[in-house]
Amino acid sequence: MSNIKACIFDLDGVIVDTAVYHYKAWKRLANELGFDFTEEANEKLKGISRKESLELILGWGGIEKQEPERDNLAHRKNSWYVEMISEMTPAEILPGAKEFLSNLKEAGYLIALGSASKNAGIILTKVGLNDYFDAIVDGNIITASKPDPQVFLKGAEMLGVDSSECVVFEDAIAGVEAAKAGGMKVVGIGSSENLPGADLVIAGLHEMNMEQLEKL
Ligand code: B16
Ligand code: MG
After folding, report:
1. What is the mean pLDDT of residues 50-59?
2. Catalytic amino acids?
3. What is the domain range of residue 165?
4. Is the pTM of this model over 0.85?
5. For burial by CB atoms within 10 Å, which of 38, 41, 181, 205 has the most?
6. Does ligand 1 come within 6 angstroms of the Cβ of 139?
């Protein structure tokens, strides 16, 4: 018998693919500052906070900025990003995500969100998935970003379960490390070479089922 009682989901890359909108908005900002970066470089921004993303991008462009301009730049990027995610619809839920959430609910598992994004609330509302979550931990609540386990520990606390009773679903290496540091099982979404340390790696939630969950 598995002792798993709760599932904690990362948002971007697991439930929806907002990385493409982050990329477009950051690219627009970089272009305005006079440089560019590739989609490949964008991979490094997955799962990390807005502030840390800006620091990396400015580094790629060899640009030094101090506060309050850094804050203004992050704010500009976010306003373009929010414009794009405000147009999201349920059609943008990644394959299998809604079905898996429904199966979990039906089977009595608790469900939490554990995302670095400060925009998680808007996204869940736009794609119509709010009601599946018993707890939402996002970038507005946390003070330490992944790979710090805070985001997932807070999720377990809000659900009233122990870390050992949680499985985290994550697409970013920083998130896999965060879940492990929190003493949780972790299912990596993506490819095993990018997600060392995960207990199981699948291509997406369409490949997940109750049987696999119980075996973790
Ligand atoms: P925001 P996740 C993360 O979401 C994204 O993967 C990452 O690229 C982004 O910088 C971060 O959210 C912060 O997002 O600017 O909306 O606060 O994967 O943790 O769900
Ligand atoms: Mg992610």
Report:
1. 96
2. 10, 12
3. 6-17+90-215
4. yes
5. 205
6. yes
